[in-house]
Amino acid sequence: MSSIPVLEIFGPTIQGEGMVVGRKTMFVRTAGCDYRCSWCDSAFTWDGSAKDDIRKLSAEDIYEELYTIGGDKFDHVTVSGGNPALLKDMGILVDLLHDKGCEVALETQGSRYQEWFTKIDDLTLSPKPPSSGMETNWVKLDGILHELEQAGRVDKASLKVVVFDEADLEYAKDVHARYPHVDFFLQVGNDDTEEQNDEVLMYKLLKKYEWLIERTMESDALNRVRVLPQVHALLWGNRRGV
Amino acid sequence: MSSIPVLEIFGPTIQGEGMVVGRKTMFVRTAGCDYRCSWCDSAFTWDGSAKDDIRKLSAEDIYEELYTIGGDKFDHVTVSGGNPALLKDMGILVDLLHDKGCEVALETQGSRYQEWFTKIDDLTLSPKPPSSGMETNWVKLDGILHELEQAGRVDKASLKVVVFDEADLEYAKDVHARYPHVDFFLQVGNDDTEEQNDEVLMYKLLKKYEWLIERTMESDALNRVRVLPQVHALLWGNRRGV
Ligand code: SF4
Ligand code: SF4
């Protein structure tokens, strides 16, 4: 029986980021990450602070809970983490959701490949820029994109780089140059995960978004690119579970 | 020789709406519309107020101007209006842009079909809800979607409904139910095109966006749906040409 460490199940809400931004979706957040990004906005998935909330659930349990909460008001589920790519059994959940008529989106930093990647309807690979303090394993990332290519699934995937500063922007250019044919998203980083005043945060985020747009517009290395804000943070500040 | 009535050429900037929201793009705004939406935010394209700014340009002229402004910093052009679907010669511009390695997005309300629709890379059909004061010609809209289907281009198109109130939301549900397999976007209407204080506008727009999300989330008739803000208005208020 499959067993997936789950921290949160909630929705329906909108997807606030990336290739299907705005999509009505349910969220399943898994526990555990092989990274330790300096600005991680879901550190509770790996830093032990929420370890008593982790539940080991089967795919059936997860679907049941999704249905209890979401009823007939969803046909799309987003799996996020942590790094859900650590979980071999995720494929069982993906199959079950497909059987139930749901599309599945999933985000991972691209440090690990799983065979079920080729089943994901909206797969976001978000390698982490220098400001995270992490090192990208390019061999792994090349490998993932190679597998997706072989399976004819590149059009179901995208790359997303979160940008906090100029060094991150340079990194983003490298990623885009390395995989020019993969849909590419730039996103403003929220480096203010403690800010409790939503209006202050909203204003700061829009200013940073404007900066990122400006820098992207003036670069001829960033053309086939989409620049997005973090819609969730704009709307709901730093609250969890919305 | 083709002749296209042009009001504005600008960019690169981001696409602020719809299926390729965030995409780096150049804009070409054409003059003339067969509609008179009550809340039209580009009434200057048809109300005579900018008639001295209209230039009749050939496709080559337009590309030359795009290149003069945008240089090597774009590979995507968005044609908006007014209603660019009034212009038979648009196909010549689309072909030329493709030759130059550009993708082409275009938005129209869906009141008129043109053969070149099947060449557009990101075609947004945005039928107008009751608050506009306009009547949708469903036979025309059915016809357009039929043509796209025949040409295997439905995946290059999307429907977008701008929502100002509850009646608009009901209209949106009808549109989605009529074309369930077409990618469907809901967008908050900006009914405050006179507001000059950007922060006030930004705050109002986010509140309305939150309302639209809430109403969408609680409806089982709106599942395969994406809800988006008007990113341009959030960032730049009611200014033109950004
Ligand atoms: S990869 Fe994601 S979940 Fe893991 S530490 Fe980095 S930001 Fe946090
Ligand atoms: S269809 Fe568009 S351009 Fe024409 S009046 Fe309506 S909003 Fe304005």
TrEMBL record, chains A, B:
Entry's EC annotation: 4.3.99.3
Catalysed reactions, semicolon-separated: 6-carboxy-5,6,7,8-tetrahydropterin + H(+) = 7-carboxy-7-carbaguanine + NH4(+)
The record's free-text note on cofactor binding: Binds 1 S-adenosyl-L-methionine per subunit. Binds 1 [4Fe-4S] cluster. The cluster is coordinated with 3 cysteines and an exchangeable S-adenosyl-L-methionine.
Keyword Transmembrane helix appears in the UniProt entry: no
Annotated metabolic or biological route of this protein: Purine metabolism; 7-cyano-7-deazaguanine biosynthesis
Binding-site residues, S-adenosyl-L-methionine: W39, C40, D41, G82, S126, P127, K128
GO molecular function, one term: magnesium ion binding
Protein name: 7-carboxy-7-deazaguanine synthase
Gene that encodes the chain: queE
